[in-house]
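Recall that a protein's primary structure is simply its ordered list of amino acids. Everything else, from secondary elements to tertiary packing, is in principle encoded there. The following example makes that idea concrete.
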Amino acid sequence: MRWVRVVLVVVLATTGSGSCRRPPLPVRIAIHSAVQSFDPHLQNEVLTAAVLANLYDGLTEFDEESRIRPALAATWTNPDERTWVFRLRPGVHFHDGRPLTAEDVVFSFLRARNHPRSDLASYLVEVESVRALDPLTVEIRTRRPFAALLVKLSPVQIVPHGSPETIAEPVGTGSYRFLRYEEGGPIELVPVRVDWRGPAERAPLTFVVEREPRKRLEKLLSGEVEVAAGLSEDAVDVLRGSACCEAAVRPGSIVEYLHLSLIDPRFRDRRVRQAIDLAIDRAAYVAAAHHGLGQPVGQLVVPGIFGYAAGLKPTTRDVTRARRLLAEAGYPDGFDVVLEYRPGRRGEILAAQLGEAGIRVTPKESVWTDLYSRLRRGEVGFYHGGVVAQTGEASDVLDSFVHTRDEARGYGNTNHSRYSNPRADVLIEEAASSLVMTRRRELLQEAMRVVMNDVEFVPIAGLYDVYGVREGVRFAPRIDLKLLGRDIERR
């Protein structure tokens, strides 16, 4: 995907003549919600992962351009096509002083796969066994050859052996350690001066929760925060004329979509789902909701994601046909429905478009922490949200969000709508075991075509990531959306 505009604000520090140097001031980042949990295995939610990446590390990680690289694992080898042997970095310690060992890694993977409330099990569906060979060596055996293992391990964070059933006070190996958080207040993190990456003078981090994009922008302009994440696209014009701040914008990997859960009996009729799909004017939505910074999409991933199916085009709007399908389904006068979404989404624009086809939508903006909990329990019938392929693979979405729920293996653990298609499941699982990358891509693309044909997910727009940055701060937005203090400098 092409770059639209990226502005990095760099101001060199001026130092005095003395030899003492003041510690850096905190960097305050405005975000749309508090984290769902400080337990890294119980949530697979983008913002939570963006914050917790400061506290925890995995065996592998992505760099700024989403290339996989070693993290807690210094090296790895493949004795055979189903066996991976990881050698851990020596001298790594958790924030409480405990040394990192292979037993911690084994414990973490088993916890992420088997915990009854884990949201990460789908990343480990092909892992057959994990064992410690010695204090610094871990062996992972997969059920079948699994080419994507290195990227699938990156979201699984390592916690100390014996961590409680629910981790409320995080202890990791990350560049920051937890300081304090009270409900409704900021999340405060302090830097680890020497970690496995080496000594560094990093600024403390404070995540300030502000639900409204407009208010996040106001906090940035007033100097209450140094970085504002998840801004509306109209903020770009505001920041362009600002003397204190700049915008940092890049094509993102989030896809906005409508979730049509079958808990609403009206959505069990494919004609109703088709009518909703046909009633959406995606280009007009992108123009109105995102000031043109985005693109209409016809699937749950954006171009550039491995497994993107180029032939899946956005549906062309046809209000006349939508009304005809509704009448055929028994709704000649349309029907009423509530559409839920978190602050920052523009559900009212979609509501107006659907209204032209006879679907009378009541937009309902809900607090994200509450809405997300109800989504996980399968209690939301009509939802406007976003989905992201965190490791750059369509399999992220297909394994976890689309595959039939299978708690024993971990598939479908974020399938909140309880969608199920046996043909899609077969294709998803076959893709996981294919070592031929071209074949694997074809299988993911075919699985996406099968899912889109069911019209239970209605993709709308691929978004751009918009941040605001104050003068004196160096910040570059990442493809994986992580908000890493070690990559931000305040000078």
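Residues 1-19 have pLDDT under 50 and may be disordered. The chain has 13 helices and 21 strands.
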